[in-house]
Design goal:
The protein has 836 residues and is α/β, with parallel strands linked by helices. It folds into three domains: 25-78 and 102-128, no CATH class; 79-93 and 129-482, Rossmann fold (3-Layer(aba) Sandwich); 487-808, Glycogen Phosphorylase B (Rossmann fold, 3-Layer(aba) Sandwich), CATH 3.40.50. Helices cover 48% and strands 14% of the residues. It has 34 helices and 25 strands. Strands 1, 4, 7, 8, 11, 12, 13, 14, 18 and 19 form a ten-stranded mixed sheet that branches. It has a six-stranded parallel sheet with strand order 22-21-20-23-24-25, sandwiched between helices. A three-stranded antiparallel sheet has the order 15-17-16. α29 crosses α30 (735-745). The chain is globular and about 90 Å long. Bound molecules: pyridoxal-5'-phosphate (PLP).
C-alpha cells in the first residue's frame, strides 16, 4: 500500500511550493466555477444543489490547505511540545460557514456567489452535520479544538471516523423513531485521507515470554487478529490567524493477510465475516449519553482509538528522535476526554515496554507525566467498568499491564495506610464481585498527572465524593476547568445580526477576546440600543419559526410569545419532566380561568433519547401528548403552545439559541457536571431559569442574582433529603401539583392509550425518586411566575437580556483552553508560517 517512494527522499520544491491563492471575489468565483466543472465534472444539466455546495466548499478548503501545511511546518520546525486531545466523540456540525468566518472571507464569497447567481444560504443548507457525538461532551471537544487553533496551540484531536453518526430522530405518533445517519453518503469534502499513515492495531491472541535472550522477561503478544487504522484528517481553522490545526479521525479496515489466510484455508465466507468484524469497528457511534452499556464493540472502539493514536504519535517521535525517549514526557501530553480513551494509559505502557524496550519504571514515569484525565459525570451508572473476562479475551496483554499497575498502586496505598483493607478494596482498579471488573476512572486517575472536573461545583463534588480516596492520596492532581463554548460558532456565525450590533457598539475585538463583551453593560441603559437588540431577537424568533416550519410542517406561532426553550439530551436528571409538569400547570390555570396578567408563551422541547432508555422515550411521548392536547384546545388561544422539535442537533441549536427568551437549565442539583447549552443561550441574550447545578452557578455569579431565575434544592439539600423524601406529602401540600398529578393520573393526556404514563407517575411519587421532581415543583412554578412577570416588562427584559450577553465572557472556550494550557499542557503558542 503506497510503498513506492521518490528516488530522492522528498518531492521537489517545484512540486510542493506554490504561490498563495487569491482571497478576492474574482479568484473565488473562478475557483468555484473550476471545481464545479472540472473537479466535480458537472454541467448545465446538474439539478442538485449539492454540487454547487461542494464547489464552494472545495474553494474554501483550498485556502485552508495552504495554511494547514504552514501550520504543521511551523510546529515541526519548532520541535515544540504538543498536546493530543483523545475523544471518542467530536460533535462538529457543519464546517462551511465556520471556515469562511475564521478565514475572514465571508464578504468576497458573498460577492463571488452573487456573480455566479448563487445563494449562500441554499448552498450552506445542503451540508450534512458531522454528528460524531451524542451531546455536550462531543460538542465540547469540537469547541476545544476551535479554541486551540485560535490560540495557535499545537494541539491535535484524535477520534473515530464513524460511518454512521448520531441517529436521526423522527417522531411518529408522539414516539421517537431512530433512523441511521449515513452522513458520508455524498462524500465529505472536509476530510483528507492519508493512507500512507495507516497503522495496525492488535486484538485477541495470547501472550508469552520472548525467547530472545537479549531481552529477558520480554512479553510478546501473538496470534492476534489485526485491524488497520486509516487516518482521515479534518482541518481546524483558527480565527483569522493563519493557523489550521488537525483533527485526525481513524477508520478501521481489514488487513490483507487476514483475508488471504482464511481464503487459502478454503473458507471464503468466514474470511468475509472476519473482514466485516474489522470494518465494523468504526461503523457506528454508540448513541448513549451519560450511561454505558458494556458492549464488546465499544471496548474495541476505545482500544482502536487509543492504540492507533499513540502509535501515530510514537511514529513521529521515532522519526525525529529515534529510540531516545528521555524527552518524550517534556514534549507530549494526552488529554483524555472522559474515561472512554483511558485504555491509552495501559497501551502507552505496552508500546514503551514491549515495542521500544523500556523498563517498567521508565515507562511508568513517562506515562504518568503525559496523561491527563477530564471527568464529565457524577452519575455512578455512567462510570465505565469493563469485565475482566472481556479484557482477557480481547486485550490479554493490556489486562496483564493493568494488573501490574494495580499491584504496584495498591502497594503504594498499603504503605501510606497500613492495614486499611477496606481502603484497598475501595481503591483497587479491579472491582471484586460476582464478576471482576476494571474501573476505568480509577485507571485514568492512577495513570494521570492531572484530574479535572468541568465546573467549580462538579470538581468540588469529585474531590469530596466520587474520588475522595484518591483526593486524599494525591490532592495536587485535582483541578477544575469550567467548560465553555466557542464564540465564533455560537455567536458570530449563528447570530450575525446581533454580532453586528455588538461590534457597532464596542468594536469587533470580542470575537477573539470575549471578556470585552463586558463593555456592553452601559448599553443596557440606552433605550435606542435596547430597541434594536430586541428587534434582532424578534427576527431571530421568526427565523426559528421558519426553521421549525421547515422541519415540522406549518403551525402558526406568534413571535411575540415568550419562547421558553429546553433542548438537550432527554435524561431523567435533566428533568424535562419537571418542565412538562409546569406546562400542565399552565394549561390547568388557563382552563380554570386564572389568566390575569398572563404572559403568552411557546414552550419548545427538543432532544434525543438513547434508543434503549425506556423512561426517556416515555417522557418524549408525554411531551408530545401534552403538546397535542394543548395545541388542539381552542381555549388556549395563543396563551400557550407546546412544540417538540424533532432531531435536535448542532445545526438546529444554531437557529434555536438566537431565538430563545428563556433558557431551561433545571437539572437536579449535583447531577449536571457543567452544561454548555446554558452558555449558548446566555451568550445569545436569553435569561436562565435554573437550579444551582453545574456551570449555572457560575453563570449566575457572572450575571448577578437579579438577572437569573433561581429555584430548587441545592446539591447538599438533595443529599440530605435522601432517605426521608416523601413526594406524596409534597403533592398533598401543594394544590397546583395536586391538580397536575390529578390530570396525569386521570389519563387526560392518554385517553386512547391507557396506562402508558404510569411508570412516569410512579417515578414522581416514589420516595426513591433520585431526581426529586416533586420537591422542586413549587419553587419552579414560583420562578416561572417571576420570569413571566419580568417578560411582560419589555424594558426590564431587554436590559436583562443585554446584561446576560455582556456577562457571558467567561464562558468562551478560549478562556477554558487558556486555563488547560497554563495549568496542564504548558504549550507555547506557535504562529503558522506565512502564506506566500
Ligand atoms: C450544546 C449542545 C449540547 C449540550 O447541551 P446541554 O444543555 O449542556 O446538555 C447537546 N447537543 C447539542 C447538539 C449541542 O449543541
Amino acid at each position: 500500500m503506497l510503498t513506492r517512494k521518490f528516488k530522492t527522499s522528498n518531492p521537489t520544491a517545484l512540486l510542493t511550493e506554490m504561490p498563495g491563492l487569491g482571497m478576492g471575489a474574482k479568484n473565488l468565483s473562478a475557483d468555484i466555477r473550476r471545481h464545479f466543472n472540472c473537479t466535480l465534472g458537472r454541467d448545465r444539466d446538474c439539478r442538485s444543489v449539492h454540487y454547487a455546495y461542494s464547489a464552494l466548499a472545495l474553494t474554501v478548503r483550498d485556502r485552508l490547505m495552504e495554511r494547514w501545511r504552514n501550520t504543521e511546518y511551523a510546529y515541526d520546525q519548532a520541535d515544540c511540545r504538543r498536546t493530543y486531545y483523545l475523544s471518542l466523540e467530536f460533535l462538529l456540525g457543519r464546517a462551511l460557514s465556520n471556515a469562511m468566518l475564521n478565514l475572514g472571507i465571508e464578504e468576497p464569497i458573498q460577492q463571488a456567489l452573487n456573480e455566479l447567481g448563487l445563494e449562500l444560504e441554499e448552498l450552506a443548507d445542503s451540508e450534512f452535520d458531522a454528528g460524531l457525538g451524542n451531546g455536550g461532551l462531543g460538542r465540547l471537544a469540537a469547541c476545544f479544538i476551535d479554541s486551540c487553533a485560535t490560540l495557535q496551540l499545537p494541539v491535535m484531536g484524535y477520534g473515530i471516523r464513524y460511518e454512521y453518526g448520531m441517529f436521526r430522530q423522527m417522531i411518529v405518533n408522539g414516539y421517537q423513531v431512530e433512523e441511521p445517519d449515513h452522513w458520508l453518503r455524498n462524500g465529505h469534502v472536509w476530510e483528507q485521507e492519508r493512507p500512507e499513515l495507516t497503522v495496525r492495531v492488535k486484538f485477541g491472541g495470547r501472550t508469552e515470554f520472548s525467547n530472545d535472550v537479549s531481552r529477558p522477561g520480554q512479553v510478546v503478544w501473538l496470534d492476534t487478529d489485526d485491524v488497520l487504522a486509516v487516518p482521515f484528517d479534518i482541518p481546524v481553522p483558527g480565527y483569522r490567524n493563519g493557523t489550521v490545526n488537525t483533527l485526525r479521525l481513524w477508520k478501521s479496515a481489514a488487513t490483507d493477510e487476514f483475508k488471504l489466510g482464511e481464503f487459502n484455508a478454503g473458507d471464503y465466507a468466514e474470511s468475509v465475516r472476519a473482514k466485516n468484524l474489522a470494518e465494523n469497528i468504526s461503523m457506528v457511534l454508540y448513541p448513549n449519553d451519560a450511561s454505558e452499556n458494556g458492549k464488546e464493540l465499544r471496548l474495541r472502539q476505545q482500544y482502536f482509538l487509543a492504540s492507533a493514536s499513540l502509535q501515530d504519535v510514537l511514529r513521529r517521535w521515532l522519526a525525529d528522535h529515534g529510540e531516545d525517549f528521555s524527552e518524550f514526557a517534556e514534549k507530549n501530553c494526552f488529554q483524555l476526554n472522559d474515561t472512554h480513551p483511558t485504555i491509552a494509559v495501559a497501551e502507552l505502557m505496552r508500546l514503551l515496554i514491549d515495542v521500544h524496550g523500556l523498563a517498567w519504571n521508565e515507562a511508568w514515569a513517562i506515562t504518568n507525566r503525559t496523561m491527563a484525565y477530564t471527568n464529565h459525570t457524577l452519575l455512578p451508572e455512567a462510570l465505565e467498568k469493563w469485565p475482566v473476562r472481556l479484557f482477557r479475551q480481547m486485550l490479554p496483554r493490556l489486562l496483564e499491564i493493568i494488573f501490574e499497575i494495580n499491584a504496584r498502586f495498591l502497594g503504594e496505598v498499603a504503605a501510606r495506610w497500613p492495614g486499611d483493607i477496606d481502603r484497598l478494596a475501595r481503591m483497587s482498579l479491579i472491582e471484586e464481585g460476582h464478576e471482576q471488573q476494571v474501573r476505568m476512572a480509577y485507571l485514568a486517575i492512577v495513570g494521570s498527572f492531572s484530574v479535572n472536573g468541568v465546573a467549580a461545583l462538579h470538581s468540588d463534588l469529585l474531590k469530596h465524593g466520587l474520588f475522595k480516596d484518591f483526593h486524599e492520596l494525591w490532592p495536587e492532581r485535582f483541578n477544575n476547568k469550567t467548560n465553555g463554548i466557542t464564540p465564533r460558532r455560537w455567536l458570530a456565525a449563528c447570530n450575525p445580526e446581533l454580532a453586528g450590533l455588538i461590534s457597532e457598539a464596542i468594536g469587533d475585538k470580542w470575537t477573539a477576546d470575549l471578556t470585552r463583551l463586558a463593555e456592553l453593560r452601559p448599553f443596557a441603559e440606552d433605550a435606542a440600543f435596547r430597541e434594536r437588540w430586541m428587534a434582532i431577537k424578534r427576527r431571530n424568533k421568526e427565523k426559528l419559526l421558519d426553521f421549525k416550519n421547515r422541519e415540522l410542517g406549518l403551525t402558526l406561532v406568534n413571535p411575540d410569545l415568550m419562547f421558553d426553550v429546553q433542548v438537550k439530551r432527554i435524561h431523567e436528571y435533566k428533568r424535562q419532566l419537571l418542565n412538562v409538569l409546569h406546562v400542565i400547570h399552565l394549561f390547568d390555570r388557563i382552563k380554570r380561568g386564572d389568566v390575569q396578567d398572563w404572559t403568552p408563551r411557546c414552550v419548545l422541547f427538543g432532544g434525543k433519547a438513547a434508543p434503549g432508555y425506556v423512561m426517556a422515550k416515555r417522557i418524549i411521548k408525554l411531551i408530545n401528548n401534552v403538546a397535542g392536547t394543548i395545541n388542539g384546545d381552542p381555549e388556549m388561544n395563543d396563551r400557550l403552545s407546546v412544540l417538540f422539535l424533532p432531531n435536535y442537533r448542532v445545526t438546529a441549536m444554531e437557529v434555536i439559541c438566537p431565538g430563545t427568551d428563556l433558557s431551561e437549565q433545571i437539572s437536579t442539583a449535583g447531577k449536571e457536571a457543567s452544561g454548555t447549552g446554558n452558555m449558548k443561550f446566555m451568550m445569545n441574550g436569553a435569561l436562565t431559569i435554573g437550579t444551582l447545578d453545574g456551570a449555572n452557578i457560575e453563570i449566575r455569579e457572572e450575571v448577578g442574582a437579579e438577572n437569573f431565575f433561581l429555584f430548587g434544592l441545592t446539591a447538599e439539600e438533595v443529599e440530605r433529603r435522601r432517605g426521608g423524601y416523601d413526594p406524596g406529602a409534597v403533592i398533598e401540600a401543594n394544590e397546583d401539583l395536586k391538580r397536575v398529578m390529578g390530570l396525569l393520573e386521570s389519563g387526560f393526556f392518554n385517553r386512547f392509550e391507557p396506562g402508558i404514563f404510569d411508570p412516569i407517575i410512579e417515578s414522581i411519587r416514589s420516595p426513591h425518586d433520585p431526581w426529586m421532581t416533586a420537591a422542586d415543583f413549587p419553587g419552579y412554578v414560583e420562578a416561572q411566575r417571576a420570569a413571566a412577570a419580568a417578560f411582560r416588562d419589555k424594558d426590564r427584559w431587554a436590559r436583562m437580556s443585554i446584561l446576560n450577553t455582556a456577562a457571558s465572557g467567561k464562558f468562551s472556550t478560549d478562556r477554558t483552553i487558556a486555563e488547560y494550557n497554563r495549568e496542564i499542557w504548558k504549550l507555547t503558542p506557535i504562529p503558522a508560517l506565512p502564506v506566500k
